[in-house]
Specification:
eleven-stranded mixed beta sheet, binds zinc ion, globular, Rossmann fold, four-stranded mixed beta sheet, alpha/beta
């Protein structure tokens, strides 16, 4: 056991945390075969469903209305007997979703950031949050991090949460260096340069946009840093050009992370590019607009069942994100379920009449090679009509339009009618997701 593990294990006792114990347990389960992982999920689910039925009025009523008993939901396959839980349903049934045993559960009031519309308020069990912390440490391990390795956390306030003395102590014990950034100006870049020179961190974690801005800022000042063994990116979609730039500048791999605190979801990329879900803490389904499971490789809504949030359990919760999954085993040896692609929020997709979803980000990068257009704007007018606005560049030829039409036809096939319109394009905040500028 390394120095940091020993110190942390002792310090955890008065803090009342169980992070390290869980971290060590999950370091073992990450190598379990698929069958054993599903067994863990089924056991966790049975316990959760019993708890929901006995103590959460919303589920009690739902079970009664559907003539179900807890025994009917004994495995993850049975979950489809229950309807999907949306943010609207949560808002309408807020009190009924809280366990009647809430007084016996340690919990935290939480809310989503609201990037996908109105923020959602909810309660989360402290134990579930601790498991999330343990799984985060394990997830960094997919990128060769070991507990106690020095890691620089570059964040706005949401990555580190409210800074309490206890949290500072925790960061210190785990060798985590926190730098809060609200505005990327010259001062902050100078501060980060000093931190890198003094602390020599081996890992870095931040948002995609921060990492990209930092790499560009350091490069323009002629400052190079090649001590990172890995960089973890979180909370935002990382665009391919950003990833390449950051990897080239820092000479190390960028590992993507997908987390949705409200769904108790955490997924981390391994060195083979698979984004492994922490199956032990939640069960994830990927479904189309009609709630039907999509095939591997197809984009769909992320639906999560959190096993440990007993304070306010979310069963089959539609998180508001779009992703695709794979059933192919990963070369790293882990059999944790794999997300192959993260497509961002539900507002970033085109919805077709047959229920299928086409994420904007899945094809927009193809346009970077077309020289004839300066800007693009995509507006889905109805389920079967897509308007593509184009602003020509000085190099435009008819071949550019033909190439664009060919790409869009390959993607949308004949499932939607595409109309083209030429002219100057301005960006407005309401349609920024369907806007693309080179
Ligand atoms: Zn892997």
């Amino acid at each position: 056991m390394n120095y940091y593990l020993t110190v942390f294990k002792i310090a955890e006792i008065p803090l009342g945390y169980k992070i390290l114990r869980s971290y060590q347990y999950y370091n073992k389960t990450q190598w379990y075969d698929r069958h054993s992982l599903i067994n863990i999920q089924n056991e966790n689910l049975q316990r959760l469903i019993q708890h929901c039925y006995e103590t959460v009025p919303y589920y009690r009523n739902l079970f009664k209305a559907n003539h179900l008993s807890p025994a009917d939901i004994s495995s993850i396959q049975d979950l489809s007997k229950l309807p999907i839980l949306t943010k609207d349903i949560i808002k309408q049934n807020y009190n009924d979703l809280i366990s009647r045993k809430i007084n016996r559960i340690k919990y935290i009031n939480n809310r989503t950031g609201g990037t996908a519309g109105e923020p959602l308020q909810y309660l989360v069990s402290r134990y579930d949050k601790e498991l999330g912390n343990a799984l985060l440490l394990r997830g960094w391990g997919f990128g060769s991090y070991r507990f106690g390795d020095k890691i620089l956390l570059l964040s706005g306030s949401s990555l580190v949460g409210k800074t309490s003395r206890l949290k500072h102590f925790y960061k210190l014990l785990s060798n985590q260096v926190v730098c809060e950034v609200m505005l990327f100006d010259d001062n902050i870049i100078q501060k980060i340069i000093k931190l890198l020179e003094k602390k020599r961190p081996k890992f870095l974690r931040s948002y995609a946009s921060y990492l990209y801005t930092l790499a560009k800022g350091l490069k323009s000042r002629g400052f190079n840093y090649d001590k990172f063994k890995g960089i973890f990116t979180t909370a935002e979609m990382m665009l391919p050009y950003q990833k390449k730039y950051i990897e080239d500048f820092f000479c190390c791999k960028v590992y993507e992370e997908y987390g949705a605190y409200d769904g108790s979801i955490l997924a981390n990329e391994c060195k083979y590019g698979s984004i492994h879900i922490s199956d032990e803490r939640c069960y994830i389904e990927i479904v189309d607009d009609l709630g039907v499971p999509v095939k591997p490789g197809h984009a769909g809504h992320v639906v999560a069942t959190s096993f440990y949030n007993l304070a306010m359990p979310f069963v089959r919760y539609k998180v508001g994100d779009i992703a695709a999954y794979s059933e192919e085993p990963c070369k790293c040896g882990r059999r944790l379920k794999i997300l192959t692609k993260l497509y961002g929020r539900t507002s970033d997709v085109f919805r077709l009449e047959d229920g299928s979803l086409i994420p904007y980000i899945s094809f927009v990068h193809l346009f970077s090679q077309i020289k004839g257009f300066e800007k693009y704007k995509f507006l889905q007018k109805s389920p079967n009509a897509l308007l593509v606005k184009l602003e020509k560049s000085s190099e435009y030829t008819d071949a550019d339009l033909e190439l664009l039409q060919y790409i869009l036809h390959r993607i949308f096939q004949d499932k939607i009618n595409i109309y083209y319109e030429f002219g100057e394009i301005t960006r407005s905040s309401s349609d920024k997701r369907s806007y693309y500028s080179k």
